[in-house]
Amino acid sequence: MAALGWLTPRRRSATARSVLAGEASAEAARKSSQEAQEAQEAQQALEAQQAAEREPEFPVIGDDRAAAFFDLDNTVMQGAAIFHFGRGLYKRKFFETRDLARFAWQQAWFRLAGVEDPEHMQDVRDSALSIVKGHRVAELETIGEEIYDEYMADRMWPGTRALAQAHLDAGQKVWLVTAAPVEIAQVIARRLGLTGALGTVAESVDGIYTGKLVGEPLHGPAKAEAVRALAAAEGLDLSRCAAYSDSHNDIPMLSLVGHPYAINPDSKLRRYAREKDWRLRDYRTGRKAAKVGIPAAAGVGAVAGGTAAAIALSRRRR
């Protein structure tokens, strides 16, 4: 019995110490978890504050002295509007199969290169001007509506459209600014619910195209001048305006506003935008793929295939 009495207190004492140790461990774990949660919440609050300071809410609702200017080709729409316009004109027998082949090659080059080369684009515009020479402006405007539905409507970038809609929802005007013919640009702007469009103006006399331009194509610095002139006429504060483009050729326009965005940028614009700490958005599935990979190859194949089919059909008809 003496031995048993000696063991019993030790057991009770060990049990009490175990309970104490367990409670202390649980309390330490709970306190540590609470501290970690508080630290995480504090970090999240700090990051949110820094983000708010770095990128304030934009566009500003009700700011009627602000507007947004969007480049068209590869910014709002995949590919170049003038190429799709050419396809539509060919369908309506405005020109021959050999001209379609040239348009197809130019579109393929544009998709593969992923950038706008001024000389190349000038060649394209010269081709288009020679095609519309002698036709009525009203006729081309009507055809432009049809071509939009056939070739352009499903080629708009949803992400860029959302950006444009955000400006509209904020009560601001939204303009397309493009080297494409102003008649086509205005059709696209109207169909997208935008305010309007600035584009290249082809000369016409008594409502008939002469085959010449008024001034020069709305490209590069000319876009910046068009935006500057429109801002003055509309009473806009350019420091509160935004501009969006994919091309380094539009750096003059982007530099003109207080909120420049590089959208699906080419390599030169991407590099410049990073140096200037401009905002970037890329809605392509992959920059490399969009430039020279599978999607581009598929697009080229579709155009080339369509051209081959058209040539074969033309030969059978002869």
Structure description:
61% of the residues lie in helices and 13% in strands. The protein has 318 residues and is α/β, with parallel strands linked by helices. The longest helix is centred in the first third of the chain and has 53 residues, at 2-54. The protein starts with a helix and ends with a helix.
Characterize the largest beta sheet: strand count, sense, and whether it forms a barrel.
Answer: 6 strands, parallel
Let me know the average pLDDT. 78
Percent of sequence in beta strands: 5-15%
Q: What is the CA–CA distance across the termini?
A: 123 Å
The radius of gyration over CA amounts to: 31 Å
Computed structural class: alpha/beta
Please tell me what the overall shape is. Answer: elongated
Amount of helix: 55-70%
Number of strands: 8
Q: What's the topology here?
A:
Elements: H1 2-54, E1 67-70, H2 81-91, H3 97-113, H4 118-132, H5 137-152, H6 158-169, E2 173-181, H7 182-191, E3 196-200, E4 202-205, E5 208-213, H8 221-234, E6 242-245, H9 251-256, E7 259-263, H10 267-276, E8 279-281, H11 287-292, H12 294-317
Parallel strand pairs: 1-2, 1-6, 2-3, 6-7, 7-8
Antiparallel strand pairs: 4-5
Features:
elongated, 12 helices, 6-stranded parallel β-sheet, 318 residues, 8 strands, single chain, alpha/beta
